Amino acid sequence: MDRITKNSEQEQEIPFMINSMIPYADDVDNVDVYYEESLRNTQGTRRKSLSLRRNVDLTLTIAISDTESLGDAPISPKTALVARNDIDETPSLPLPHNLRRNSISMPSGLNALADLENLRLKHQMNTQATVMEEEKTNSTPTNSVIDDTPGTLTISIPDPNVIATHCHKIEDSDENDDFEFSGRRKKGNLFRTKRRASIAPLPALRLNDKEMLASDFDTYSLASNQASITSVNSVASLLREKMQAFPQMIRKKKRETKDYKIKIFVIMMFFITVFLISYAYVGYHRHVLTYSYFEKIKFNSKDRFIKILSHENKVVMSGQLGVTINMDSHPFHCLEDRRKQDGSVCIEWNGVARLYMNFKDMDVFRCYTIHWQALSANQFPIDCYELTRDNGLWFGGGISKNMEWSLSTKDFDFSPYASGDAKVHQFGNGVKRYFINSIGVAIQVNEKSPLHLMVNTTANEFCLKAQNDDFTFVNRLTPLPELQYKICTTEDMRSLHMLMTQQSLWDGLKEADIKMLHTLIEEPVWQIPHQNQWDSINETTVYNYSEDVIAMGFMRLGHILVSEFWQENIGDFTVDVSRFPTLKETIDVLHRRGFKIVFTIQPFISTDSENFKNAVRKKLLIYERHSERSIPALTRYKSVSSAGVLDITNNASIPWLKEKLEKLKEEYKVDSFYLDLGTSYNLPHYYQCRQTLDNPDMYARLFTESLESVGFLGVSTASRAPKPPAFLSTLPINSSWSGIREIMTTVLNYGIIGYPFILPGAIGGDYALAKSKTKMISFYSLPQPTLPDQELFVRWMQLITFMPAMQFSHLPSEYKSDYITDVAKELINVRKAIVIPLLKKYLTESMNEGLPLVRPLWMLDPHDPACLSISDEFSVGEELIVAPILEESVEEREVYLPQGVWKDGIDGSLRKGNRWIHSYKVPKDKIAYFIKLPDNTRF
């Protein structure tokens, strides 16, 4: 053993290499120098191994037979070789390259695991003192283990049949490891790192009486060596632990698999919970059980709440459909035979009503169709929408009683939507089933629906109802009431209005019609004044009036409008020769002076007229319902106390009337006609036409369309924009300050619903009443008012100067005042220089798209909140803003200018837009107007 110890201090060998940088023990004396060289030659070829350079086989197994005693006698290589051959005849293999230092190999001489187990248990009974004593007596420990039992000695040499595992990285990043990946040597043991105490030390090999490899380990390694009796014992222990741990590993894998499934389940439950919470939140704010049947629409079929969303997913309209349906009634999908083939969604409440909803998408322009069908006689479909400020202001529907600017500020119960006298009935003479909201949503109701409207400012509701009655919607077009309309949305109300009212007015237009349209804009309309007596108008009156117009000298000659009293009886369609004996010559003179003659005609035929008998005989009149067609239905209108009405749906009526009008034009050279059609309420109460009318307002439309070839200047009633050059006239206006405000509101409202050309009535008013009548007065022939107050006349004329057309009854010269004359001259010059060019410029736009010539301010800037509520300002096109004075004895007002730079029409100063001008001074002879300058104008 002394020799073994001595030789081990001279020559040593490492059992495996790390990155080919561990030195051979017999070749390197100075290890530090070797490492420096190895770092410089890491890419070079590896040197020959010790076994090759010594030409010997170092893979040996040495064993002692049971009868031999080890003692202190040295073991020669020859003896070791003989012993190895006795144990195993398998040829030996060289020591594997890069064998891990702590790797444990199965010895070739292992016969039974039981002997190894006994050896390990016997060794564990040794005390630590014995281990320390052996450490003192043996300066260099070996891998040989001497047991107390004689003849049991095993020297552990790696099995040549077991291939060692290459170490590619340093485990556990131990601070006491001898080497790092960089190849730099760390301070400490050269051949061994400090490992756990359970790992056995390296074996010592002896060959040719020299120790070739010795374990150089510390105290921990010694303890580990004593704890692991032999390499065989260590392997046996390792195998047993692995075998014992195998079931546990299987259970662990199962447990890991089970844990993996649990984690997945928990994650899924988490996402489901988040989804449910989010859904509940959305449902709370958008009404529970609300479904999106189409894009940008939310509808709850049970409670029938509906919300229309804009392109930015903002609510622009909300309300409730089918208000009268019981909340306990549950809907279901319609049967197959009740569904439409156009993709509509069909929902039905059994025995109550059926609802169809459809959707049409045109990029940013979207329309949703709502169609209700009542299924019982006492069921009337009603849909109500909110009128809150957050949902914008509603406009449209024409004018109504009290002449409010916005529909949102009105308050009235359900009323039939039909033309009438706004002083008596709910709606005025110009109607159109079109309503628009300031935030970009519009409603258009089908004309076949028996429409009733209600606005309740207390409940903030705007409601539509379908209901038949005994007059307005007496003609039941369907067995039960049906309500059909469409809701359209787009980016803003201006572009929406252009899309909804878009209609070409050029179709069938002749060059003469275009010329007439320009003359109505450029030249005034002169209405011959009349009194209560039908004979107050005669040939002398017409002639003298034309002379007065010419005498003023500063106004262009235009159209002389003669009322219906040019005939002896209403409906004669012939000139009363007793009052107009030389009318042909008079008209010829007026033509040479530059005037144009316009006669007023009506569809009413007085019972005193010879034409009444002729029309009854030919069955040309509207007849009584549920009676023979030979019995005419009578009505009253203006000065006529009893009159029949031409049945415009009778194919024989139009030729009969056209023949008389053409003869009149040919004989008297009449230029055009003005159609005084009355309103729907002027029809006989129990009217019945040969062809069923959708509603009473269809009568005026058919009458106008049938006489387009005759040529007319204007109409008194309309439910659709008449073909140019016809203008829609306003209702007769009372000569008062309230009347001038009505003119302002009427023109703007008619422009919104699609009537671009408005004839705003006579300056100063059409009649004079001390107080409003509560009963129907439209059948009276109201007299022309006496000369209005001077201030009222001036303010009225200032307003009309900027309207599409000017109409006079009283002349400025009647005041015999230079002040009135000077004001009139200045206003006429403003109209010629500024207004008329702008009206002609925007004429094409109005003809193409139905946009009005006179517009509310929100059409200039629909996103400006201030423009929505302003009802006492307007614009001509997009380049002129007018702020008239509409109150008595007022000479200042608040003026709002939209964005841009504006030139003051009074003093010529520049005004910055998008702001209010407070206490703006407006003298009595001036009107505030502002001209927009180019966008690149520097302020």
UniProtKB/TrEMBL annotation:
It comes from the Eukaryota. Keywords: Glycosidase, Hydrolase, Membrane, Signal, Transmembrane, Transmembrane helix. Residues 850-932 form the Glycosyl hydrolase family 31 C-terminal domain. The chain crosses the membrane at residues 262-282. InterPro entries: Alpha-glycosidase_related, GH, Glyco_hydro_31_C, Glyco_hydro_31_TIM, Glyco_hydro_b. Residues 561-688 form the Glycoside hydrolase family 31 TIM barrel domain. GO terms for biological process: carbohydrate metabolic process. The keyword Cell membrane does not apply. SUPFAM superfamilies: (Trans)glycosidases (SSF51445), Glycosyl hydrolase domain (SSF51011). Pfam families: Glyco_hydro_31_2nd, Glyco_hydro_31_3rd. CDD domains: GH31_NET37. GO terms for molecular function: hydrolase activity, hydrolyzing O-glycosyl compounds. Belongs to the glycosyl hydrolase 31 family. This is Glycoside hydrolase family 31 N-terminal domain-containing protein. It comes from Glossina morsitans morsitans.
